[in-house]
Amino acid sequence: MLRALFAWNVLTVRAKMLAIFEFDPKPWEQHRNAVAALRRTIEETGQIRPSSSFRAQRAAFNAPSDVPGFDKIVQLDFDTSTAWVEPNVTMRTLVQATLDHALVPAVVAASETVSVADASAATTTESSSFTFGTFDCTVLSMEMILSNGQYVMARTDDRNTADLLWGSAGALHSLALTTLLKIVLISAGEYVEIMYSPISSISKARCMMDRIERGHSGPHLSMLDLSKDFVEIIMFGSSSGLAIIGRFTPTTGRAFVLQSLKGNSFSRHARPVWCDSRFAHKRRVEILPVMEYLFRHDDRRRPARGKRRSRDQKSNANFGDEAQGVWPIWMYPSRPPESTGRCSFGTGVRFEHMFWNIRFYSPSAACDGAMERRLRITHGFRYLHCRAPCSEETVWVFHNDRWYGALRSRWKAQGLPDVGTRLRTARPLTCT
Fold this sequence. Notes:
The protein is of the alpha+beta class and 432 residues long. It starts with a helix and ends in an 8-residue tail after the last helix. Among the domains are: 27-187, Uridine Diphospho-n-acetylenolpyruvylglucosamine Reductase, domain 3; 191-294, no CATH class. 43% of the residues are buried. The protein has an 8-stranded mixed sheet with strand order 10-11-7-9-8-13-14-12. It contains 14 helices and 14 strands.
C-alpha cells in the first residue's frame, strides 16, 4: 500500500512538471499570424506603415522601439536556457517571467521600461557584461522583416545571415524590422550579495580590470565565482570611488538586507557607503533582492548625452580633466564582441581585450565634445544611442560608413531611416 502511494505521488509530481514545461503552440501561432499580417501590409503598400516608430520622428519617452504590438514572451526554453521574446517586451516583464523559474537574462538593461529590441540596438552594457559582453552578444537569433517585406531569420551560426544580426547591434533599427529575438538566460538566486570596496583612483580601477581579464584573484575578487557575478565601478571624483562586486545567492545569510532603495538612486545610496568604507578601512556587504539590484540605476529624471566605450584602458585612465562636472561616472568592464565570434556595428574599431563602458550625465555639449576628443586620442569608441543625439559627422568618426552602407544595400534597407536620420530626430533622454 505504501509503495503504491509513493509511486502515485511520483507520477503526480512528474505530471505536474510535464504540465509546466509542456510546449504551448498558441503563442507561436499568434506570433506567426502577426508577422504574416505585417508582411502583407508592407508588400501591399510598398512601405512601412505610418504607425511604425521606424519612421523619422522625434523619439518619444519610452516609446516602443519596434512595430506596434509584438510585446509577448513567446516561449521560455528551459532545456537550452533561452527565451523567445517579441521586440517590445520590457526588461521588467522579461525578468519577472524568467525569475519565476530561477533564471534571468544574461545582461539586463538598467531601466525596467527598456524593450529587448532597444537593448540590443543600443548595445546595452551592464555589470554582468564582463562575462557576457553587451546585450546584443546574448542574442542568438533575430527574426527580421526587411523593408520590402522579405522574411529573414538571422542566426549567429548561419554565415549567410550573421552579418545582419551582428550589424543590427548599434544600428538603431535602421537595417530591418525586428519581430522576435532569442535571448540567453542564466541561473539566478533570489538575492544578490553586494560587496563594496573603496577605490582611490581610476588607475586602481584599471588594475582591478586587468585582474578580471586575466581571471586571477585579487583583493577585490577573492570571494567571487567569476562565472556568476557582477562588476561595476562608480567614481565620485578622480580620487574617490567604489568597486561594487555582486553575486547571486539563494539566502540572505548574515549580511545587511536592503529590501528597497526607497526611491534613491543607487549612486546616492553608495556615496555614504564609500565614506564609511574608506574611514573604517573595511569592505561592506549588503543584500538586495534580484529585481531591486537589476534595476538599481533606473533613474529617468535626468537627461543623458550618451554612452562612451573605450578599449584603451591605460590612456583612458587619465580623462579626469574632461570629466569635470560630470561626476559620478559609472564604469563597466565588458567582454569584447570578437571574443564571442561576432563583430558589432562600426567595425572600423576592433576590441582585442576587455574594454570599459563609461556612462555619465553630460551637463553641456562642450563637455560632451571634450570627452569625445579624449576618445579619439585614446582610440576609444562611441556606441550610438537613439536617445543620445549627436551630429552625423561625429557618427562617422567612430563608425565605418562604407561597411554600414554596404550592409544596408545588401539587406535592402533603403526603405528605413538610416542612422543619421535616426539621430537627427532624437532628443536626449535617460540613458539605459
